## 1
Amino acid sequence: MSTAREEERADRDEGEERFDPEPPYRWPIPPPEGWTADDLDRIPDLPKHTELLDGSLVFISPQTRFHSRTLRLLERALLERAPGHLDVLSRMTVRLDTKNRPEPDVIVFPETANTGPDQTWYEPEGILLAVEVVAADTRDRDREVKPRKYATAGVRHFWRVEQDADKGLSVVYVYELDPATKSYALTGIFHDRLKLTTPFEIDIDLTAINRRQGS
């Protein structure tokens, strides 16, 4: 027969269990052959903006202010200048192949590539431009791994954006695909102002990174 003290302890333990924090998240265990591009939509409770590179999940660190404002500047500017048959989105994955589904910071693609509101990825053949804004923990991927994979998949234009250590502004490295070698050639490095005629007429004031729209 339980005593009053034992019953009181049981009630207290039950109450504590009720308010215990959720158990720690258990990272998914990959299959022997690695994850696939389709798995990215099926694995439960993945952190936002998880990418897939060479069959491995890649998790993204919190954004810096520079990264966030650079994305805002470039997405708005490209949307304003892109021809009507093109669309612009930030942070959408591209299914390069069965083992690679990276998430460029900004992509430009034909409007016809949109398949519906539940779409989670795009085909590389339709991507006109992929943009990566380099962060401290993504430097190697954004400088070497992703450009090589984008080029192999046929993405025609690639921009790598880095922070100028002196001014805190964006420096844009512009690349164009050489279809014969399936590799990128650097066509320009832009400070303060990005002015191009390809893939369409582009003129972006890079010093406006901290300027609010309409100011």
## 2
Amino acid sequence: MFFLRLCAGSTGLVRMWWRLILRHYSYKYGFQIPHTTKVGKGFYIGHFGTVVVNGNATIGDNVNISPGVVIGQVSRGRLKGVPTIGNRVWIGSNAIIVGNITVGNDVLIAPGAYVNTDVPAGSLVMGNPAVISTGKGVEGYIMNEWGL
């Protein structure tokens, strides 16, 4: 995240330099989060492992991601686009979130879930296809509370 923030905050040749460094570490450590991704403060990746995020995605504050997560794009149909992830969201291992959807605040996405529908705030999402249980948020799961 350090190099991602440096890319976003610089211009010209300095920006190109930080983009090269970001690309190097992306390959070395398996995190593919482009510098164009909008990431809020308090973003936390719990463990080493592959994480793929589309460069047009938006991730809110205090989002926790586990290994194997994909936040991707749908290229056609009614879901064409990328997800918007709210604040205080916990995303379990190997979860896949795709399409022009919105994940609300205080949501827990269980490991292995396939999410391609809007998720209301304060929900628990599990399964493939996603089953949404409202009123069961992320209390006790968020590890890196920034600014709260």
## 3
Amino acid sequence: MLNSLPASEHLPVKEGVSTIRFKTLCIYLIMLVVPGYFIYKLPLHGVTYEGVKGLIWFTYFMVVTLCYKDIRTFIALLLNVKAFKKPGTYIWILITFMLPYIMLHLCLYFEVFLDKYFMFYFNNHMLHASSWRQTIDVAVLTPITEEIVFRGILLTILLRFVKPFWAVGTTSILFGLIHLSDIWMITILGGVLLTLTTYKTKSILPAMVAHSLWNLYMVQLFLYF
């Protein structure tokens, strides 16, 4: 499927603003990564603080992103609402949710590729839904920040320098590497599909929707289907 990507397609970023200065990009990423690490290490544990670190990170991320004019302009052009006027957009959102869903349940059924403890807890209905604060963090805030970074900035910049196959592949692999978990294969598949959804729809909004639906399923809806 990746080999069929036409090299002439680009995300809708004008040439004049699509090239973020290397210095600006480095400073922006450093300002996200370094404080982000310390936010992750904050000693906020227990029921009282559920979702607090996620909210702090999201707030900080948005402040930094909006303060940089080049980054803000760059991302704004990728928030293409017109994509939702095309039927193909909803097909991609459906595919991006359904393929990982099918793969997850096939792996659970045949007991392959997944962590044995995850399979045991899942099959015996021992996994519990997240709290509403965690759900907001995982299903709303996280998709926004991750799609801006991976499908917004990273994918768009890569498409300017390498062929679509490599841009999509690199973005997907990096996304998978920071999401190593008990269901890592499904995460990598999800990364590929989210990247393709952005590439095909020319907007990061459909990927945000698909990402949000999948995260919502993993923290809440798996109890029902």
